[in-house]
Amino acid sequence: MRILSIVMLVITASALAITQVQNKDANQKTHVAQETTSMRKQAKATFGIKSWDEKPYNEMNGLPKLTRASVIKSYQGDITGEGKLECLMMYRDDGTASFVGLERVVGSVGGRSGSFVLQHSGTFKEGIATVTLVVLPDSGTGDLRGLRGEGKFAVGHQPPYSMTLDYDFD
Prior knowledge:
The chain is of the alpha+beta class. It has one helix spanning 2-38; strands at residues 41-58, 65-77, 79-91, 97-109, 112-125, 128-135, 147-155, 161-169.
């Protein structure tokens, strides 16, 4: 009977030790996940329009006008450099518009240099362009390899235009 009691005590102690190790491992994983989340940064920048070349590519009576714009932008702040944007737009009779675009930015984000591509999706209504931005996966080069993020801006016709980009790296 005494041997059985000792065996049960050893098994119980072993089970407790294993549980403590598992809890410690789970706590470490939670801490790493929290650190990764907290490492996300926000870049604040302004941009100006250096050139805007917009041309219709499909106009028909009674239908929304479709245009393509080639835009060159300059960035200052936490994002520096130059962006080249190709944008497709649809204008409605009421003056509102919807648009999508791709922009390659060559410069730096948070002091890291390289290039990356932003996907634009937005609307124009009551004189305000409201845009959401997504850093396209695998588009980063140089020190910006692995960049991922989302951004936004809402601007009128008065520069400089302010934007934010929440980002981190793979």
